[in-house]
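### Sample
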Amino acid sequence: MQETNILLVEDDRMIIENLTEFLKTEGFQVWSADGQEKAMKILRNQHFDLILLDITLAQGNGYSTCTQIKSHYEIPIIFLTALDDEFSVVTGLDMGADDYISKPFRPRELVSRMRTVLRRNSKTPNFLSCREIRIDPVKGIVTKRGEEIFLSALEYRLLLVFFQHRGMVMSRSMLLEEIWDIAGEYVNDNTLTVYIKRLRDKIEDNPQEPKIIKTVRGLGYKMEE
């Protein structure tokens, strides 16, 4: 069963510790950040199913953080805040938040709301992600830090093959077998080298020192887990 990843953006250390511990007992995997900059950095390297976002943060605020997240990612957000006036509620929801719960809240009520939001968004495609690279397999779209990157059909297929075999060393012959049906007789050992280079040029920050698709000397290639 796939784990549900939660990002808790909150600057109260006590709430972070207590809520993280409780959510873990409910089967969630929890990451935390105390401000907007740290939250965006974590989002660039990890896929999340839901974000719990406080309005008052150590750096930035919940509203600006929500806007920043929504401009780059399609992730449901629940606001956590001590502000329970109507204006705060409406502002949060108008900015794209999926729900809003005021402090102090009962942990089990929060979990119930989280599961409701997750069910509501369950029709969202299961994205594939590694570091800052993300694939929407339904739309066939690849993004890097939220910006779309354009791959040829064979480059896209090659990237999918690596995602489908994450952590596994893929020999050149295995890769050729996987992508043969896309380009047929035009795929050979030399063209494979060219396409791996082109793919790295598009997805790696430094293609000369790849972090996503690594070379395993004498064996082949491997995408990090």
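The chain is about 45% helix and 20% strand. This sample (Stage 0 sporulation protein A homolog) is used throughout the tutorial notebook.
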